Amino acid sequence: MNFGEKLKHLRQQNGLAQEALADKLFVTRTAVSKWETDKGLPSIDSLKLISQLFGVSMDELIGEGDIETGRRLEEKRARVMYGIALGFIALATAFALLAYFLKQPLWSVGGAVAAAMYVLFGVLSKPRHRRFSAKKLLLPYVFSRIVVLLFVIGLILFTVLTI
């Protein structure tokens, strides 16, 4: 169980609404919602208050196992996204080849859509903790995906113009 699930379980077990918990922790209801949906983590001070409020240790709230489990799940999801991205780039290439050999420029539309989907899934193929931990590397990563997209679009345009 990850931190968000633990927090939600403890909150519900104690009959507290998000708003009531937020008041006790001196934060906004939105902050509690973000924590429960794993879109953020509380500060150390808030963790201490949560620990005291529910009578659990901080290790129980956010243990190393939770972090590792979350990262493994992110890595698995990233591999799936990478596979889908590769499928889309292959599909874009196939559409471009079909348009060229069949002399039907309409196949290029499918290639353009597949190329755009490649960029989307290519960006998602990097695990979230790596995307945000290396923000300075995010721009080159996205840029490389866009370069591939431009290459495929160039291939599609070449196909359409030579038909």
Describe the structure.
This protein has 163 residues and is mostly helical. It has 9 helices and no strands.
Record keyword descriptors for this entry.
163 residues, mainly alpha, 434 Repressor (Amino-terminal Domain), elongated
Entry summary:
The chain has nine helices and no strands. It has 163 residues and is mainly α.
The Rg value, from CA coordinates, equals 23 Å
Shape: elongated
Number of strands: 0
Number of domains: 2
| Helix coverage percent | over 70%
The biggest sheet amounts to: none
Distance between the termini: 57 Å
- List unreliable stretches of 5+ residues: none
What fraction of the residues are assigned to beta strands by DSSP? Answer: under 5%
Question: Oligomeric state of the chains?
Answer: single chain
Structural class: mainly alpha
Element order: H for helix, E for strand: HHHHHHHHH
